[in-house]
Amino acid sequence: MYTKKGYKCCDKYDGQTNTIIQESGKHYAKAVCKYCNHFLKWLPNPNITDDVKKRNVKINKYIQCDILNEKQKKFLEDIQIKRFLTPKQSEYLQSIKIKYKNNLKI
Ligand SMILES: [Zn+2]
Predict the structure, then answer these.
(1) Nearest 5°: phi and psi at 40?
(2) Residue 89 pLDDT more than 60?
(3) Ligand 1 centre from 103 Cα, in Å?
């Protein structure tokens, strides 16, 4: 639901939208006006959002258990807000996990 105050793409617009799943590209889906099909906003993939939440639960355990150095801690805090990691970030995260897997049972 597009909630920007006073927004009108057409005379009929009342906040009702249609969701159009994207077959390609980096966006999962878009919300369009139910009446005129005007683009309103991109929608996140709900599955990926759950994956990010799960990843962050694990990352928080690392941050809280005080075994990391400042650089590693900063890195983990930085990637928590990201939906996708670059290959380099994934690799570094993986190296932290491997290094500390005996310190932390997760
Ligand atoms: Zn409209």
Answers:
(1) -115, -50
(2) yes
(3) 55
C-alpha of residue 46 to centroid of ligand 1, in Å: 25
Residue 16 — left, alpha, or beta (φ > 0 → left; ψ -120 to 50 → alpha)?
A: beta
CA of 29 to the centre of ligand 1 (A): 18
87-105 b/e (C-beta count within 10 Å ≥ 16 → b): eeeeebbeebeeeeeeeee
Digit-coded pLDDT (tens) for 25-83: 778 899 999 999 999 999 988 877 788 888 888 899 888 887 899 999 999 998 887 77
| CA–CA separation, 86 and 55 (whole Å) | 15
Please give the structure tokens belonging to residue 92. Answer: 């570094």
Does the pLDDT at position 94 exceed 90?
yes
Q: How far is the CA of 45 from the centre of ligand 1 (A)?
A: 24
Token reading at 13: 């617009």
CA 41 – ligand 1 centroid, Å:
13
